[in-house]
Amino acid sequence: MASERAAAAGVLRRPRLVIFDFDGVIADSETIALEELAAEMTARGAETSYEQARALFLGMSTARHMAYISEKSGRPCAPDFPDVWHGRLFSRYSTELVAVTGVHRTLNLLDRLGIDYCIASGGSVERIRFALDCLGLASRFEGRAFSAEMVARGKPAPDLFLHAAAARSTSPHECLVVEDAPSGVMAAVAAEMPCAAFLGGSHLDPIRTRHRETLIQAGATACVGDHAELQVMIEAR
User: Fold this and answer.
1) What are the DSSP calls for 185-197, one per residue?
2) Cα separation of 50 and 34, whole Å?
3) What fold does the segment set 31-96 form as a domain?
4) SS3 of 13, please?
5) Phi/psi of residue 17, each to 5°?
6) What family does this chain come from, according to its entry (predicted)?
7) What is the full per-residue pLDDT of the chain (237 aa) written as tens digits?
8) Please, which residues have CB within 8 angstroms of residue 100's CB and are 6 or more apart in sequence?
9) What is the Rg, in whole angstroms, of the alpha carbon atoms belonging to the chain?
10) How many other C-beta atoms can be found within 10 angstroms of the C-beta atom of residue 132?
11) What b/e readout covers 184-197, taking b as 16+ CB neighbours within 10 angstroms?
């Protein structure tokens, strides 16, 4: 596996901008988010297990969650869904949320190399802001955290990544996207941006090998198991 990663990484040039997905790449938040998403969907008549939520909704926007509830329950999803779900999340974020191991070293490396970075997440502006506060990273991402709420179409459409690149005055081919979700990888491919599949989130522990293949099939340019491998890949360019 290591040799395959090295070979894949060889096709990447050093980027001017690294665009991080948030949940599962910066914040080790996916387990919390998916547990509470499945619970709230089930409470609204769209019975969903944690495993189903993980398979269907990694990287997806709240609009997609609401559409699924409407489809499965046979009635419109009440507009209070985002607030109720976020309330469940925020209650747990306050005491449970941690950063993905090694992310601070990655950010320090990018600062040292003079490489810009930002977040492009399917999560809401409020959710990203609250989580960054919990992690003590709010100041580090001030003005460079972008949400699917800011564009017409969320992932797997390219809109969010193109918006983030334009906001950071960087052309798509000079970016590197770091993603843990198939929808995010597909969005990077559609944006014509190199993409490193990231497998370091704890939510992937039971499915890491299978998920790696899924991300490669979605079009990932490279694959890294954690932030330490991402750092080696970036510094080697």
Assistant:
1) HHHHHHTT--EEE
2) 6
3) DNA polymerase; domain 1 (1.10.150)
4) coil
5) -140, 130
6) Belongs to the HAD-like hydrolase superfamily. CbbY/CbbZ/Gph/YieH family.
7) 433 433 344 446 799 999 999 999 999 999 999 999 999 999 999 999 999 999 898 878 888 899 999 999 999 999 999 999 999 999 999 999 999 999 999 999 999 999 999 999 998 999 999 999 999 999 999 999 999 999 999 999 999 999 999 999 999 999 999 999 999 999 999 999 999 999 999 999 999 999 999 999 999 999 999 999 999 999 987
8) 24, 25, 26, 27, 28, 200, 201, 227
9) 17
10) 20
11) bbbbbbbbebbbbb
The tokens of 129 are what? 């802001």
List the alpha helices (DSSP H) in 44-168.
Answer: 50-57, 62-73, 81-96, 103-113, 125-135, 159-167
β-pair partners for 176: 18
- Tokens 């990018």 -> residue: 110
CB 178 within 8 A of CB 102: no
Q: Residue 99 — φ and ψ, nearest 5°?
A: -80, 155
Q: Where are the domains of the chain?
A: 2-29+97-236, 31-96
